[in-house]
Each structure stands twice: as structure tokens, then as C-alpha cells.
């Protein structure tokens, strides 16, 4: 990465700050030149501590800065698609947090704008860059387990989000399962052609009252003939449960959880080990850096990004199909 | 078990011989007095080595022997229901290998005859007596993990049966998954109210040509609100994969495979551990003895058997629903 | 095993009854014809239930029975050597529980008698027949890990024996570590040439007051150049800890404990797994049958026994050297 | 850490560069102002990329800079003690890589100088800051396993160092085991009172020809009554093996290796898992940052350092005793 890359971060919530901090810390060849947030008020000290030159309330000022090469879109979900369009029109490379949008037309519009502008575009499906899942993908692609027959993803949160969040989240399938829809596409290298959502409210009746579910087993068919299953729950009291299993014609692969330590203690009453790493920040911290590394590399080397526009679209389509399946009580087909 | 129990074994195939041998070896208070098989010809030596007094070609001779208290029905599946009826009418206690029948009417007739005769009746769902699964059931019933939310069963064979067997097996759902249908009922203590079978032919096209599937993910709903998933494959090249997972409101439980040894070898190229115990004879050997122990205890102490008539009926109903679901491509409801 | 073998069991304590029961249950070609115990009084019912024809107070009656081919010596340790001599003189094949004696001269005398009589002689080092350790030995002998560099044995009891037992046990090195001395010889296929015992009283001061130790790390040198370590404790509160590790020039091997089940439960407070199988009866049950199988095979096929006389002598010599080392506070050499 | 701390790094070999990079990346409140190396020639670009202002050939220029608060001594081992003395006299806080020296008198002189100057002094025993071992220490100190009875450390390198390094390394006990001597002190919270080194040349005869050993089992006694064992090898072909075990009166603790991923692949031939993380840079990367964090905290908050002068002295004394024990072939006592 010979040439210095200047980026602007749009949105300074938890994930925006996380990305800004990671970039400053890990990429000497990248400068976080500006940050924009509608609540820019309290950001000055934080921005200064990271050496970020400009703090704006309006992201358009970032887009207007000719010194900025790329934007990291971390604003609220409902702004992703139109900021993507504007950033593309301004000629900026774009890293956009998932999802691009919940409205398929707006996703298409955003991808269209990106295509027209010829800028790089990467979606924030960070789990693809996780050490465990990346190795599973590599093993599958190497042919080590033959043709994929069954893929299973277990994805459970340690505790449900606040009810206010649940209400605006787009529903569990689009908010939480969307990562798992991306994961099964990533692992199988194939598209989902059918989805059946077996779901229930088993954690908190208030989630049901808000029109959502909190527990689900989602059955999938893939274009390459494989079948799959995603297991979700908004609450596993023992912690963040992130596992995958793949069965192929020549072998099987399992991934268990990462833990803080390998310590096992045995006493007169029990043999105890660590619970999984607490939540996504602990579990996937490295992947947030890795996805940025790939994004900056695709800019520097003018290559395809690792998570393309289609990868932003497909999980939303599967999520919408899952919603429809749950409402109708039967499988829903997708184009694949 | 003060009083000696005399049993007759009907059917001297692999499982019949297994039960006879186990009984002779492990239950001093039980005598295998007779064995019957339509191919009784070559049985004399084997029977003598076990001290079995009578070898018959016709099972009716066992039923006619007033000294015999109980029969172990291990003949071919299509004979289970009518032999059960005749044995009940002859006043014999009955241990019947699974399934009782694939025809629901005939199952009802058999259970009716058992009820009328007042004899003990136990179905051969041996996995309930497995050390691992039994402990899972106990933990669930103790309340240790709260209310069950999700139950998952992985059940894969090391290699598919001969094609000739596949053709007369009743189909994978009734031949193989039937054990798993029993397992989810056993673990959750609840009845299945809906089944959706996502299945495919991914192991051997000849199995598909024979009208069956070889790989399946079966999605379930339970009367108590829980949801579940069964994962089947006729072939996992690494061996017999028999695992369960349960998520409850207060905790989760996982069961991994039993292995021949705990040896782990690390070399310059890899860290390797044992594959699972080879197949059901190796994996479930102890459970075949345990189920007999419970059967004889229920006779000796005049108590309910551990796997009652209803337990023989329900898995068949679920299996038939799974077949219907697969054919129709949508979920099928059950009475529960 | 064409010819029926008749055995007499000498000593009807826990281990004697265990062997008798195992033989009756597992070896149709072997008959337990007689049992002898100085407290023969209460044995009639038990013997009858196993179909044992003769119950004697004096073991000499077993030796005098020409129908008896072999004896299983399970009497108290101080009688092992002289009964071995008498049994050999009577022409009986001999399975003798460990140790043959604590007096080296008497061991030599016993082995001499065995040699002269030309009878089979096997010592009860049952752990050699354990599924885990047997596989380690096989891997080492196959060359899979190259030349052995380091062998480590962890051997801890769940609780100390009664103090009365400790006092007559011959001391921890001869009573408990003796199994581990056998294990390192078995695994390395080499002889111990030096022993240094680092030991202490850390479990119960009363054990120290009785002149014994309860915790030890015993450092070893082997003839083939390898070095080794045995880790003993009379009490591990979490249970019977039986592990080995071997490092070789081409790889390493580890063996972890066997557990009752593979169940892992995760709750809000911890991830818990089974403690090891409780004690030697649970842990090594299969090995008691396996060692008998080999003994009977060596008789039937007239081959060398799996645990020969030298294998009964060497661990005692190492144990005595360990005692000397502990007393002197320095390493003690052995002939090797 | 309100006040900015300026540090100078002395020695720009692998570990010096590692510390400099870590500090720049992770501690915004700390500035690496200068670096010194006798081969300062090629450092300019690297220093500039990290924003290090001054590059010196002579470390004395760092000591002469009044703006520098602390030095990180990463030069060759034979310079540690005298640079420590000079740095202390210059009033700089000192982080010194292990060992301070192999000469006990010079260690004392260095510690004396530190004491006189009243500066902070921390030794680079980074493994104390490892997530696994730190938790073991915490569990022990919490009383969770009662009084420590046995401590065992396994510490094996993936491959031996170059022979030229072996020759000047001070010998395996001082070069490699020194970390383990620190570890047992850290875990037990007690001092070693006796050491017996059972060692051999089993990896490479050339190491023996150079007067060193490559494989060892070191038996230890502790002041608090516990006993211990360290298992070393210059080469474990499967990789960097870093484990500990502790047995206490109320429980036991084991730590297994960290691995790159949790992926397990099962095929027809084997079940394979990851080898340990490759070597110390991969395995202990986080600990290098953690030890710096503690060092800077002790400066900022004027508290005791986490690894004090005595912690630099004791492992050397134990290492020298181990050398003596190996040469004499018997245990050597220490003051404790």
C-alpha cells in the first residue's frame, strides 16, 4: 500500500468509533481524516486523541472533501442506501455496514450507483474474516471435504437487545439472522433457493407483542443441492454461541466457540471451563480489522472487494423470504 | 428379581442373537428358554453354547410353552404387529423391536391386544438407555436448563445400507429417523405437532432411483412450544455421528460422540484424535443390555415399561408425516 | 479356545470376586470350578449364583484338584509368592495379582518355581489392557512418534485408603506407584536405570505419621536414553486421574481421562463437564476382562503371557529404589 | 495515565522492534521518542514509519535525554546489567528484558542501583501476563483449589535455536527454563528450595557437543511444601507446547495450548485439529502488550511493578542450581 489512503467515517456510534480506532491503530498507510455525526457535539476530544483532523455534523462535508478517498458508512441503517448513492456519485470508495437497506429497490439503486461510479464497495459482513470461519471456507474450497451436503449455523446472542431496538430492527431475520444468511452463502459458495422459518417467542413475550420472534430454526435449500439449517436465539444464558458445522461427501467440519482462556478447573463438584467470549465485540474484534485490511487492499491494488454488492443484496432477500415463510407457515422459494 | 423369568426370543438375526447373548450373560435371574427362527437350521450349536433349551422354526411353539413368561420379538418388521397380538393373546409379556409396524391401523390393533391382555409391552428404542442421552433427559427433567427452547439431533450413519435393504426399509424417515423422532420425544417430554422435511439425495443416486432420500434436515414444532431439528445422513465418511444439543431458558446441553479411546497424537503435520465408535453395535452396546434390564424389572416388579405402546406409535406417525411433508414440499401438522 | 479350561480362584475379596464374576460372564470356554478363602463361610450363595462348584477354606484343596488347570491368586499380598510356588509345583498355570511380593528374594523364588514347572504365569498389571494405554503402546511401537524422549504418567486416587491399609500397604511407591512403574516400562519398552523420588505429605498428616508419603513426583531415566516422570497423589478431590503423555522425536501423544458421559452443560455461571470415572473399578473394568482373555489365550495356545515374571519383578525393584531415593534425598541407580 | 510518558528503546533487534511497535500502536499516552542500536544504520525508515524522533547508535544518548522518562532494555543479554545501572543512575524507569544477567553479583549490583535511584524496574517475564496463566494464578490466589500440592509446567519449543545461539545462550536452564522457573514462582506464590535436573541430549547430538542439554525434567520443592515439575524440550515437532497443571487440596487446574482456530475436520482417515500457535511471537503476542501496560501504569500511578527485581534474580538462581544439579547428578538446595 504505497499511496496513503484518506478516509472519512460517517456515523460515530459504537461501530463507527470502533472502525476509526482500528484504522488509526492498525493501518499506518491509512489516515482517518474526518468523522461526521449528526451528534457531532461531544466528539472533539475523542477525534483529537486519534488524530482525526475534521469533525463534521453533516456527512456531505466529507463527501465534498476532495482529499478523501473512501468513506466508512456506519450511520443508522435507514441512511445507508442514500449515503451510498451520494458517496458513489462523489467518487468515493465505500465500506458500508450491513445491511445496505431493508428495501430491495433501494439496495438495487445503491448498487447501481456504485456500478456506474466504478468505485470500490464492500459490505460489513465481518464474520467472513473471522479466523475460524475463514478456515472452514478455505477447507471447503480446497476440496478437503468433497461436495457440501449439509451446512449448519448456530448463532445465539447472550441477551436480547432492548425492546425499543427490537421494534425498529427490521425483525430478527433481517437484524440477526442476516449475518448467518451471509455465512451460509460464504461457506457453501452457493445461493439459497428455498427457506422455511420455524420460529417462536420463547425468550420474552414482549418481543412477540412487538411483532417479532426470538427463537428460530431456519431450513434452507441451496442451488448446488446442499441443504442447511440456521439456529437462532436472542438469548443463550451461557453466552454468545457462534458455531458452524459442514458435512461433505469426503468429511465433516465443526467449529466450536472461542473462549477467553483454555483453563479447566476440576473440583469435588464439577469440571468447569470458560464460557464463550462474551459478545460480538470480544468474539469478532480481529475480524473488524481484517475486513478493513481487505477493503484498503482492494483500493490500493484496484481489485474486487471481498464482500461485493451482491453479498449485500442476497442476505436481505433471504431474510425477507424467511419473514414471509414464517407468516405463511410454509417454505418460500428464491431465485437463487 | 426374586422369581426366575423365562423368555423366548423370536427371530435369530443379528439383533435377536444379540439380545439372547446379552440376556444369558447379564441376567442370572432370566433364562432364555427358547429361540425361534424360520431358518432354524443352523442355530443348534449357537443355542447350545448359550444354554438355550429349545430351538424352533415356528414362533408359535414359543407362544404355546406355558413355562415362557415373555417374548423378545426380533423377527422381520412386517411380522411384529401380528406376533405381538398373538403373544399378548397367549399372555406373554412382550419386548418388541422397533417399529411395531409401518401401518398405523396394525399398530393400534397390536396395542389394543396388549392392553386387553394386560401384559407388559416395551418397544426397542434402545437409545433412551444410552449413558449420554439418559443424562441429558435427567438434566432436563431436573430443571437444570429451565424450559426447553430448541432440541437438535445429529444422527448420521457411517455408510448407507445395501440398496436391497433401502428398498424394503420403509424409507429413511421410518427406518433411520424413527430413532431420532423417539429421541426428541424422550428428551423434550413433549409431542411433535408439526414436521417439515427438507431432504435430498446427496450420497448415492441409486437411493434416489429407489424412491428414497439419503440426507435430511427435519424441522419440528412441539406441543410445549419448543422447536427442533433432526439432521440425518446415510453416510458420514468419518463414522457414526450421534449427538444432541438442547437449549433451555436456563442453560444449554451438548453431547458429543463416544470414541474408542481418548488418545490424541500430535505430529508435525496434524493433531489427530479418534473417530467416533464405528456403528450402532459399538456405540449402543450397553443400551441393549440396559433396555432389557428395565423390561425385566417391569415384569418382576409389575411396573410400567420404560418405552410404552404410545412410544411405539408416535414415531411412526411423525415418520409418516415427514414422508408426506417431503412429498408435498410443505410442513405437515400432527395431533400432538 | 477349543479345550475347556478349569480355574480355581484363591481369595474371595473384592478383586477375587470381580475376576470370578468376569470369567463366568465372559468366557464360555472357561469354568470357575472352585473358590478358596480363609473366610469361606459366607460364600456359598454367591458361589452358587455363579455356578461355582466348590467352595474351600484352604487353597491347597484347589491345588490338589487335578481337574483344575489354572489358579487366579487374589489372596492377601503376603501370600502371593508362596502360593505361586505351591501352585507351580502343583502344575497349575498362574495368574497372580500384583505385587508378587515386596521381598525381592521371594519374588525370585516364585519366578524360579514357575520357570522350573514350565507353567504359564501372568501378573495382574491390568492397566496394560486398558483401551487408552494399549493404543499408546501400539502407536509407539508402530514408530508413529519416533524415538521416545519423555514419558509422563499422572496417577492420582480420588481419596486415600483407610489409615490401617496405608500402614500395611508397603508404602505408596509399592502400593500405588507400582502400577505406574509398570506403565512406563510398558509404554517405553525400556528399563528404568535411575529413580529420584520427590515426595511429601500434603493430603493427610496421619499418613506421614504412619511413615508414608501421599504426594510424589518421581523422576526417571531409562536405558534407551528417555527420561520420565510419574505424578502421584493419594487424593485428587475431582476424582481418579489417570493420564499419560509421551513425547517422541516425531510426535507427541496424550491420553485424557475417561468420563461417564460426554455431556457438557452450559449455564449462566459455568460450562461444566463430567468428572473422571470414579475409581479403578469403573475406570478399568474392561481391562480386568481383557487381561483374563490374554491369560486364557496363552494357556490355550501355549504362548507367552502378556505380563511375564520379569514384569512382576521390575516394578518392585523400582519401587524399592524410589523408597531409598526418598529416604536418602538423592537419585538411586538401578541395573536396568 | 494523564501525563505523557516518553520512552527510549535500547536495542532494535526482534524484541526491541516488537516492543516499540506495540507501544506506538497501543499506548496513545506513551511516546517512543528514541531508539538506540549499535547497528543503527538501517533503522531510519522503520523509525520514521513509527514516528520515532531520534535514532542513536549509542544508548547513552537516550540516557542523556532529559525528556525521556523510561527505557526499554532489549540489547544483548550481556549488556542488561550495566545498562540497567547506568539508566538507574540517569533516573530513568527501567523495563529490562530477561535475564538481567547470568552473573548473580552483577544482578545484585543492578538491583542495588535501581533501589538507590528509586526508579521503577520491571523484568520481561511476559508469560505472567498471558490470559491463560494469569487466570490460573487468580484462581489459586482466590483459594478455589485450596493449598497447592503439585505444579507442573510443560514448555517445549517447536525447533531448537541455531547452534551458534545455543553456544552463547547460557545453557537451556538459563535460556529456556528460566521462563518456567518464573512461572512456578508466579503460580505457587512460593520460592523454590530444591531442584533436581534430569536432563539429556535427545534432539540433536550437536547440542550435546556444545556442552548443553536439549531435553529435561526438572523436579522442584517449594518453601510452602508443594512439589513441582518442569518438562522442557528444545523440539516438539508438533509445535510450541505451553501448558501448566496445578493440583490443590480443593481442586485441580489444567491449561491446554492456544490454537489458531477451533476448527476440527473429520474424514475417513482421521479427526484432525489445529496444532498449537506456532511460537512465542504468535502465542504470547498479547502478553507483550500487557506487560508494557502494567509497566506504564506503575510509572503513572507510582506503584510497584508487576515483575520486581527479586523476580529477575530468583529464576537465575534456580537456573544455576539446575545446572549444578545436572552436573552433579543430585538435587541442589536453594535458600528459598
UniProtKB/TrEMBL annotation, chains A, B, C, D:
An annotated Gene Ontology molecular function: nucleotide binding
Keyword Transcription regulation: no
Keywords from the UniProt entry: Oxidoreductase
Annotated Gfo/Idh/MocA-like oxidoreductase N-terminal domain residues: 5-125
Domain annotation GFO/IDH/MocA-like oxidoreductase: ranges: 133-253
Family classification: Belongs to the Gfo/Idh/MocA family.
Descriptive protein name: Inositol 2-dehydrogenase
